[in-house]
Structures are given as structure tokens and as C-alpha cells.
Amino acid sequence: MKRIGRDTSISLALQESALRKNFQSACDILNQVIDWLVIDNFHSIILDVKNNEGKMLFNGEEIKKIHKKGIIKRLTDNNIEIIAGMRVHDCLDEGVSGRRSVSFDGAVLPDRVCPISRKNMDYLIKVAKRANEDFGSEHFHFSYYRYKSSQYCFCDSCLSKFAKDSKLSWEHKHEIFKEPELFADWILWRATQLINFAAQFKEKIRNSIPKATISIETDLNPRKNYHLGTLIEEGHRLGDFIKAFDKVYYHIEPLQVFFDSSSESQKVYSDKLDILKYVIGKMRSSGLDDGYMFWELNSRSNLDKAIDLANSLDVKDIVLYTREPRSILEMLKRI
Question: Could you report the per-residue pLDDT of 130-152, keeping only the tens digit for each?
């Protein structure tokens, strides 16, 4: 049976869909997490604290019940950290988070927020403060921070800001794709906006929560050459990224792509693993703390693959991400 090394810290990511089936279900899951103390190296949960509609995941009455049941105290007493998961640019309510993102063809994305929206920044600061009050969270984890495509966001504000910052005078956004140098400038500019957003969030939240930690999850997908979205494109200064975030969680999806389906031993493809190790080594040598998210862990075989890969990469911090946390809890009791 596969084993997770005793020096490897284990976390569980509890997303909105797993927690909002009903309130009692959420409490049951949190209680099962506490009962998971038979695994010595389990140390935290990443708990979505807001939904994509622009509301806190639990209302005030539910928070009171969670505290009354002693769930938060039991987690704290057992040194299990509650990390506040925040879907940064994912919100349907324009009233709380600001203008919508716009695609290159002019289509408005109803559930996606413009990545330079100041209103969204103010909204997220309020969410973080509320998570600190409700759960004692001092670690804030950015997800859905994924403007990987060069096609977003082309709202009027982004276009005018890009033209001003680049000191360009042009009338049509189509010019971005006509000139390779201009296109490269656009990608770098978008990455800079995302990094600046995170850096500003970090500065603002530390005014209220001095020990606040900011982490991000970013895809490591073999089909995307392991680029870290538009956050670290070629030529971008890694130092800026390090200043904006305290930790990066490499989100490895889909997991099965790392493995040779024809191999009975399920060995990791050597070329993919070499590239992955190169990226990880570069980040670690720059001083950035790292962790790893594995999705979708819905079977014992996928869990074994995740453990194999974690052991191959000398991973010290892994997050098990699943829509069915109960099944993962049960499987891990047997490792």
C-alpha cells in the first residue's frame, strides 16, 4: 500500500460544492477532519469562505452554530489551521465586486471580474477580515486567479490602462495580435496587473492582520508546458511574484496525464517529471515556499498516483482536492 512520508504535511481542500449540500453536512465533514488526527502529519484545511455569487459561504447564524458545536475550538486546539480559500476573480454580483471581464470578441463574462477592479479588491479585503473573525484565518489562498488566456480582459478600462502604461497610441485592440512585440507586451502587462493586485491585497490585509500569509494555486498541466499561467510568463521577473505571494501550490491536473497508462507500475513519464523538477527547483531556489494540490482524487488508484508523484518530487506539503472528502478521509485512514 502506498505511503505518504511522515515528514510530509497533509491538507484537505474543501470547496463550496462539498460544503453547501446542507449545513449539517458541512459540520459533519469538519468533524470528520478533526477525527482524522490518527494521521500525525495532517495540519490544515483550505475552506472556501465565499461563493461565486458574492456571498459568504456560511451566514451569521451558521457561524454561531459552528462555534457553539465547538468545531472551530477543536480544530484550533489540535493545531489544524483553517486556510481561507478565496475565488479572486469569480463573482456574479457586480454590485460587490465591480465591472465584468470582457473577452477579445467583446462578450461580457457574467461570472468573471475584471482583474484590475478596485471594487473587487475592497470586497476581497472585507471577505478576508470576515474569515479572520469567523475562523481565525490568517492564511488567505487565491484560487480562480487564472487569466491564462491572452484574450482576457479586454474591457475599456484594461485597454485604456494598457495603452497608457505602454505609452502607445492605437485605436483598435486587434493591433495587439498583429504585432508580435505588442502581443508580448500585452502578456507581460497582464501578468504585471495580476501580480500587482496580489501585492496590493497583501499590503492592505496586513494592515489589519499583520501575520497574514498569501498563497496561490497555479496549474502545472503537461499540456501547457508547465507555465504558471500568465503570472510567470517567459521574461517575467520571478522576484515580483515572490514579493506578492508567500507560497505557491502547484495544482496538478489532470493527474493521470503524468502516468503511462500502459505501464503496470504507473511510473511517471521521465520527460514530464524532469520538466516539473526544473520548474520546482527554480521556484525553491528563489526562496518561495511550495505545496502541491492533487485533483480529482475520487479513487484509491488516483490517491496512489498522487502519493507516488509526491514522493518522486520530495514534496513536503500536499493538498488533497476532491468533491468527495468523505471518501478521501476513509481511504487515508487505511494508509
Answer: 999 999 999 999 987 755 555 67
